[in-house]
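Z., the sequence and structure:
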Amino acid sequence: MNRLGKAVMAGIGVGVLMCTAACSGSGGDGGSADGASAKAAVSAAKISVEPANGATDVKPGSGLKVSVAEGKLTKVTVTDQTGKQVPGALLPDNSGWAPSAGLAVASRYTVHVEAADAKGTATSTDSSFATLTPAKEAGPHDNIVDGSTYGVGMIVRLEFKEDVKDKAAVEKAVTFETSDGAPVKGHWFNNRWVDFRPETFWKSGSKVTVHYRLKSIEVAPGVYGGIDSDQTFTVGRDKRSTVDAATHQMTVEKDGRVVETIPISTGASSPKSWNAYNGTMAVMERKESEVMDSSTVPGLEGSDYKHPVPHSLRLTTSGTYVHGNNWSDASVFGRENVSHGCVGLQDTVGDKGSPDSPAGKFFADSIVGDVVTIKNSVGEPVNPSNGYSGWNVPWSKW
């Protein structure tokens, strides 16, 4: 019994040893081969992303750069916090990627990049960064009321509350969409003021949309544009009036046809400060009645006055108007120039004149942007910066 037990146990022990040896031998050889094949190959491609992962207060214009060494990019995706994708394109040799649109301020971006080396071994990386929130904005504002109708001589004026250093960036960020395809350019009069117009007057009936994309533009060191918006306006009928100071007449054309000739009285030839400007201007604003105050015009000679004037259409910042003259005798109009530089049309006594007077009718039929040209005056040419008078600048210098 004991011998049998020992024999059996010995047999069992040999079996176990044999099995263990066999299993261990087989498993060890197989495990070594599988480990070699399962071990992931490391790509030689080295991806680089700027700004670095986790970067904050990044300037939108500093540039998002994605590149790869010892390989080629296969996929680049950049999205903002809303999931909107930043458009961009790979370089022809797939060594880099660049965005085709600027980044926005106060935004967080996620970057996903994939690449492969010469053997086709792939690699990828993910990163994110945040752009700065502007501490100072330029406060831009224009002279357009969205949805309004303006005359063919309208000039779009954009003004800033801070000096603009990068004017080219502003011009690139302000674009015009015109229904007739007319190109529009800007002209800077100083560091805070740029006017926009086409080469010739706007085409009657055309629609114009101004696209402002200034919010993420650094217009000066540490100062950003502040707004992204669109303004649309329609160009009304083509009304142009020509004042001849020598004949004391104003010829009114509509859509290329003379519709009326109105007797007027414009700037007197003496003293010099009463002379009317020569040149092309456009109506800046309309007022049923405006107080003409001599104290607001530096260097104006003669007696002081402060007089409510009816049917006033402003032509220059300095104070040139086409307005109703409700104090001169009717015999003056068409015969003499007696005004202090303005163009006077006959009107009736009273602060608001009469809607049935020549001045009242002309006023009722006028809109901001209508063209008024004065010729044959003894006065100087109007300064292009005075009102909407930029039409006097040749297109080649605009």
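The mean pLDDT is 89. The chain has three domains: 46-130, 141-235, 239-383.

Let me know what you think.
H.
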